[in-house]
């Protein structure tokens, strides 16, 4: 199993969607269910993104699915921030390292701004 998350522009207000794509290494003859949840990163939950938990269902023969994260736009100049998505089995067993997506700032930075947070 492998996966990756998009990098998205933050936006100035309202939601932006960040897709995290998950691929099975081979098609299965059975339905495969993978759980996911946001976890860690430099972005702040409920400020920069809305925390999410859910399941991806791969019907037999399917190898590709996406979990969507909601990114919250603002007018705050800041550095690029990260948000992580952890995949696990229904028994809670982690499936590798979390996937990381990046929220790219689109607000003008002041001269000498500190970008050390991302």
Written overview of the protein:
The chain is mostly beta strands. It is built from no helices and nine strands. The protein has strands spanning 2-5, 7-9, 15-23, 32-38, 49-50, 53-58, 64-72, 81-88, 99-104. A five-stranded mixed beta sheet has the order 2-9-8-4-6, with no helix packed on it. It is elongated and about 55 Å long. It starts with a strand and ends in a 14-residue tail after the last strand.
In short:
With 118 residues, this protein is mostly beta strands. It has no helices and nine strands.
What secondary-structure arrangement, pairings included, does this model have?
Elements: E1 2-5, E2 7-9, E3 15-23, E4 32-38, E5 49-50, E6 53-58, E7 64-72, E8 81-88, E9 99-104
Parallel strand pairs: 2-9
Antiparallel strand pairs: 1-3, 3-7, 4-6, 4-8, 5-7, 8-9
Strand content: over 45%
Distance between the termini: 28 Å
Q: Strand-and-helix sequence, N→C? A: EEEEEEEEE
How many helices?
0
Overall strand count: 9
List keywords for this structure.
118 residues, mainly beta, 5-stranded mixed sheet, 4-stranded antiparallel sheet, 46% strand, elongated
């Amino acid at each position: 199993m492998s996966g990756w998350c998009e990098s998205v522009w933050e936006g100035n207000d309202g939601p932006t969607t960040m897709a995290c794509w998950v691929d099975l290494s081979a098609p299965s003859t059975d339905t495969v269910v993978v759980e996911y949840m946001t976890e860690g990163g430099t972005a702040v939950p409920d400020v920069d993104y809305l925390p999410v938990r859910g399941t991806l269902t791969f019907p037999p023969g399917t190898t590709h699915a996406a979990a969507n994260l909601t990114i919250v736009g603002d007018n705050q100049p800041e550095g690029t921030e990260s948000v992580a998505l952890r995949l696990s089995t229904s028994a809670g067993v982690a499936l590798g390292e979390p996937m990381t997506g990046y929220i790219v700032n689109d607000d003008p930075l002041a001269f000498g701004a500190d970008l050390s947070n991302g």
